[in-house]
Design goal:
The complex is a heterodimer of chains A (160) and B (128). By secondary structure, chain A is an alpha+beta fold. Chain A has helices at 3-6, 27-35, 129-141, 148-158, and strands at residues 7-10, 16-23, 50-57, 64-71, 76-87, 91-96, 105-114, 117-125. Chain B has five helices and two strands. The chains are: A alpha+beta (160), B mainly alpha (128).
Amino acid sequence: MTNAETFTVTTPSDREIVVTRVFNAPRKLVFDAWTNPKYLPHWMLGPDGWSMPVCEIDLRPGGSWHIVWRHSNGQEMEMRGSYREVQPPERVVSSESWGPEWPETLNTVVFSEQAGKTTATITVLYPSKDARDAALKTGMKQGMSQSYDRLEAYLESLGS
Amino acid sequence: MTSSDRLDATFAALADPTRRAILARLASGEASVNELAEPFAMTQPAISKHLKVLERAGLISRGQDAQRRPRRLEAKPFAEATEWLEKYRRLWAANFQRLDALLDQMKFDQLKTKETKPARAKTRGDHR
């Protein structure tokens, strides 16, 4: 299996971003790794240099969650939200916000298992097209190099 | 157009599968409207409409040849739109690599628990 088949990032509508990934583990384990504060700080860390000193999860509909990341240079990032739907080990729907100046997103994670492998599908839904574009614009400020290689890879990942 | 407006136009243009297929075709070199219309069961005016949307988003431009008026891909606005997705992708890629390792560890731990405790797991007294 190529990487393109096991890991995709797409924008199926102008309010969504969808990430899919296949894991070589039963979905009960993947669900646990995703929702248990015992496991989450071990992997949901983003780029190198970050740790997760705070991970509070009240996994039930209406329950809230709160995560703080800290970089080795002292910088901190904080994220909060609440759970709308919790169906172990298949599905979690939660809200997510980086703070008052950021748009609140609705995140749906679905786990499906086939032959011992689990596909996780993460759908991030922005409240409006403007909100997603604002997030895109902010993300773009970080800047990075551009190349035709990536362009072609992206076209391939979109399919036809 | 501001960069936000252009990003709007780019994402709107990319939302359509026919337009994505046209872009994929142009990634391998410039092509005339007729050549672009060929693989689709569409009239030339219908294809021209898609091309107009792509042109307005700055994703394609017209070549020099006045007769053929070939369309070609413009990389910059496309790269702007994909840049953020690429950044997002890298973030998740790093997360998923760590998650792979964690899942392996969890599987190993589960196996070990089964081996060392073949009978019922003992109830821990400190757990409520």
